[in-house]
Amino acid sequence: AASPDGLDFLGSSNGGLGIGNALGKAAGSGLGGDIGAVYKGELLRRNLRASVSITDIGRINYNKGNLRSASFVANNVTIPIDSFDNFPNDYDSIKQWAANYGVAVDSGRESFSQSLPTRLNLYAEMQVIKGFYVGVSTSANLNTDKSKSSNYSSYTAIIPRWQSRMIDVWMPISYNYFSQNLKAGIGARLAYVYFGTDDIGSVVSGQGKGFNLYFGLRVAGSFKNKKIEKE
Fold first, then answer.
1. Residue 230 above 70 pLDDT?
2. Is the pLDDT of residue 221 over 50?
3. Which stretches does DSSP call E strand in 63-131?
4. Distance CA 10, CA 16 (A)
5. Of residues 109 and 174, which shows the higher confidence score?
6. Could you write out the DSSP letters of every residue in the chain?
7. Mean pLDDT over all residues of the chain?
8. What pLDDT does 65 receive?
């Protein structure tokens, strides 16, 4: 695909955006990290677990030059899947194609700094009766850099959960402050296998534009200290 001289990150590959040889040179440098704490104890003679964390603390400083990533700015945008059937090849056409759907593409070459998507995460879960727990989880965006930044959407979720030795079942009900919608999910653990979705409504109705499914394997074991016999 045609592109500005030395600008290879925005090539077209099989109808989508591809990464060219821009990976051969570092676009910049930065430093980031996370911090958090977990508490396990009792409150009102009920088991309590709580955690607090701040994730993605830091910044990235991008160098001046041709070989670095482009930025895409959009606000709650929907692009029809069939529009990719006529995806353009050259950079100017790609930029115009994106603008038609409310996405601004900027490949400016000046150096700049960008904050990581810092957010505050809070979680607390308390035992109501034996085997039944209720948890509350919330995440708030802490990134105040409005010029060039990426952010996570803030949300709050209530998570009722029933637990036994071999089976867990949970149903998170979450509200997203960016999209302003309410979603209900469902998940389960059978022995060492767990699976679920965060949006059971889209799965059942079949009217959603997308949904997520997760699946995992939990491995745990106990290790006993072996006694060393002296000769």
1. no
2. yes
3. 71-73, 104-106, 112-115, 119-129
4. 9
5. 174
6. ---STT--TTEEETTEEE--GGGGS--EEEEEEEEEEEEEEEETTEEEEEEEEEEEEEEEEEPSSSSS--EEE-SS----GGGGGG---SHHHHHHHHHTTT-EEE---S-EEEE---EEEEEEEEEEETTEEEEEEEEEE-----SSB--PPPEEEEEEEEE-SSEEEE--EEEETTTTEEEE-EEEEETTEEEEES-HHHHHHS--S---EEEEE------PPPPPPP-
7. 79
8. 63
Determine the pLDDT at residue 77. 78
Distance CA 27, CA 69 (A): 7
What residue has token string 């070459």? 109
Encode 91-105: b = buried (16+ Cβ within 10 Å), e = exposed: beebbebbeeeeeeb
- The model's pTM: 0.65
Query: Any idea which residue has 């409005």 for tokens?
Result: 146
d(CA 43, CA 141): 29
Q: Give the pLDDT band (50/70/90) at residue 190.
A: very high
